[in-house]
Specification:
Length: 169
């Protein structure tokens, strides 16, 4: 239901060249990470009932691009976390102190953040798993494994005439 109400319109906007962002906000243990990522075991099982918004959106986007024979759209994935005021790339783990910059035309961006070109859903799942396992977690009174950072998963669509970024926080 979340995918239908929130994810589909976000994908539609991105296809039309608009940047779009979703912030999941709430108390520890309220289900933010679960809503966005779902059950990690469902990623490979194909269990749609427990699949989160991020994998659903990536699957929909890539399947749509695959079905378009003449698709010239490239898709890139980035995954970072902000923890204790430090930005860290979750896909390369080479730097834990990336700098946030602002460019007059590009806008705000993270310097030296890795970006991986993907063309299949399996590639997205591999990167999503790698990044998810690298997140900063800690045991709390509410959860035995609680994410302690703000994670940002970005899907960049680069086309001939339009480009857009979907940011899922």
């Amino acid at each position: 239901e979340v995918f239908r109400i929130v994810g589909v319109p976000m994908l539609r906007n991105a296809e039309n060249g608009f940047n779009t962002t979703l912030f999941a906000y709430g108390q520890t243990g309220s289900g933010k990470t679960y809503t966005l990522l779902g059950d990690r075991n469902a990623w490979t099982r194909g269990d749609d009932a427990t699949l989160g918004l991020v994998p659903r959106m990536c699957r929909e986007l890539l399947e749509k691009e695959e079905s378009t024979a003449a698709s010239s759209v490239k898709t890139e994935i980035s995954f970072m976390e902000i923890y204790n005021d430090k930005v860290r790339d979750l896909l390369t783990l080479t730097s834990s102190h990336l700098k946030v910059r602002e460019h007059p035309r590009r806008g705000v961006y993270v310097e030296d953040l890795s970006s991986f070109a993907v063309s299949t859903y399996a590639e997205v799942l591999r990167l999503l798993r790698r990044g998810s396992l690298a997140r900063t977690t800690k045991s709390t009174r509410m959860n035995t494994r609680s994410s302690r950072s703000h994670a940002i998963f970005q899907i960049r669509r680069i086309g001939e005439s339009t480009s857009s970024t979907i940011s899922l926080v």
